Amino acid sequence: MAQKEEAAATAAEASAPASQNGEDLENLDDPEKLKELIQLPPFEIVTGERLPVNYFKFQFRNVEYSSGRNKTFLCYVIEVQDKGGQVQASRGYLEDEHATAHAEEAFFNTVVPTFDPALRYNVTWYVSSSPCVACADRIIKTLSKTKNLRLLILVGRLFMWEEPEMQAALKKLKEAGCRLRIMKPQDFEYIWQNFVEQEEGESKAFEPWEDIQENFLYYEEKLADILK
């Protein structure tokens, strides 16, 4: 894993609807073509506030087998309580190619250093898949030394959940005080409304895919078995 990343685009550039190789991603009728277009060349960490519709529909889909989904998308909400008791919230998203730093590490490298040690932070991640072993270890270490941070991670899929070392890493996350759960259909709708680009002057309703509830229950059962 790379030790340090650099921003590769501004928020406007990160939310551009075209793929990096210049091809149009608007046609979703052919899943294989979409997968081919989503597999972009490696690039550095991208930051922004809203991600393209087609990236959400492909990368966040809670399928059992995540073939072709070689990126991690991390949408975050930060709630900070100031000294007067007032709560302020901010949000954004990070995405990666696995050739560079993972999105989880990018959050700790770029966002957490801006935190005021005197304030309390409640952070929620909406992540396309659960952390890898290395990222889980980084999360544990960060929570251990950042006492004013509480972290809730909601994931669309479980990454390599059958591997013993991955199961052990998820258990350690729980023991470290990190709350981890599978995204419900309502959580995907929240991402759609708050993190996905909408047409100017038009907000389309979230349309759940056919097996969204079934796959949620599948992963929820797997996670419960791992963490029990």
From TrEMBL:
Enzyme Commission number(s) from the entry: 3.5.4.36
Record keywords, A-Z: Hydrolase, Lipoprotein, Metal-binding, mRNA processing, Zinc
UniProt xrefs under InterPro entries: APOBEC_Cyt_Deaminase (IPR050610), CMP_dCMP_dom (IPR002125), Cytidine_deaminase-like (IPR016193)
Cellular component per GO, a single term: cytoplasm
Region feature (Disordered): 1-27
Sections of the chain in a coiled coil: none
A molecular function (GO) term: metal ion binding
Compositionally biased spans, kind Low complexity: 8-18
PROSITE patterns, alphabetized: CYT_DCMP_DEAMINASES_2 (PS51747)
Signal sequence bounds: none
Catalytic function, reaction form: cytidine(6666) in apoB mRNA + H2O + H(+) = uridine(6666) in apoB mRNA + NH4(+)
Superkingdom of the source species: Eukaryota
Annotated ranges, domain CMP/dCMP-type deaminase: 68-173
Cofactors (names): Zn(2+)
Pfam families in UniProt: APOBEC2
GO biological process, one term: cytidine to uridine editing
Family label: Belongs to the cytidine and deoxycytidylate deaminase family.
Assembly and oligomerization: Homotetramer.
Biological function: Probable C to U editing enzyme whose physiological substrate is not yet known. Does not display detectable apoB mRNA editing. Has a low intrinsic cytidine deaminase activity. May play a role in the epigenetic regulation of gene expression through the process of active DNA demethylation.
Name under which the protein is recorded: mRNA(cytosine(6666)) deaminase
